[in-house]
Amino acid sequence: MTQPPQSQQVPGTEGALTPRADHGEQSYRGSGRLAGKAAVITGGDSGIGRAVAIAYAREGADLLISYLNEDEDARETARWVEEAGRRCVLVPGDIGEAAHCRTIIARADQEFGRLDVLVNNAAFQMSRTKIEEIPDDEWERTWRTNISAIFHLCKAAAPLMKEGGAIINTTSIQSDRPSPELLAYASTKGAIANFTAGLAQMLGPRGIRVNSVAPGPIWTPLIPSTMPPETVAKFGADTPLGRPGQPAEVAPIFVLLASAEGSYMAGGRYAVTGGAPIL
């Protein structure tokens, strides 16, 4: 797949992507691996989050989708979830606010009476070529959204989870191979990897498994909305597979980690990078 130079306003929308991303709408086939479960997915309106939502719904889970303000994209995700015969609750708002994180988890408990899976996927990034160009508020927003929110969501979710529960955090190849122009984003992704490893040990005795997924270059609205057009045009070309990945190609590992088939997988970080190694 190649993509032309393009740009969007943050946070970006699926409809403006050229070419359109594949979230598994026509390809993912479920087999009941998450039947009867309830899951929260942050950033579930688009990109990897939408692909995970479609896969989870087709595997039998009811979903709460957290997103910032991309209402049209969120409604499209909900349509696919409901078409699979599952419930989808949409909760807009800024996960950079601790109170909103607690509201998300409380709403899931209210709607479903249980919480089995938490997918911390939402993220913010911007490209800057010099450290002097990074505004203080942008640095703070990146850390609040990408790592502090995960802490607040996990803190609220853990007491509701029973043995067999799963928390899955989206880190990135940037945690090991940071691009200098993504200094703020990459540093938060390293923090997520460390946080995941520690939390897995903390919650393991309760039977709650914590893992992370480290995607490489995946074609989502985040890319043209936060990178220069010339970077977008060659996005993913430097991977061994020679192309960016599609969200649909990331979703299956999230299914495995949430399901009983991943019952002895905890504290791990799993690469979906098109062949680029992580440490």
Automatic annotation (TrEMBL):
Gene3D superfamilies: NAD(P)-binding Rossmann-like Domain
Superkingdom of the organism of origin: Bacteria
Stated name of the protein: Dehydrogenases with different specificities (Related to short-chain alcohol dehydrogenases)
Source species: uncultured Sphingomonadaceae bacterium
Similarity comment text for this entry: Belongs to the short-chain dehydrogenases/reductases (SDR) family.
Molecular-function GO term, any one: oxidoreductase activity, acting on CH-OH group of donors
Taxonomic lineage: Bacteria, Pseudomonadati, Pseudomonadota, Alphaproteobacteria, Sphingomonadales
Alphabetized InterPro entries for the sequence: NAD(P)-bd_dom_sf, Sc_DH/Rdtase_CS, SDR_fam
Residues of the signal peptide: none
Residue ranges, compositional bias (Polar residues): 1-11
Pfam families per the UniProt record, alphabetical: adh_short_C2 (PF13561)
Residue ranges, annotated region (Disordered): 1-31
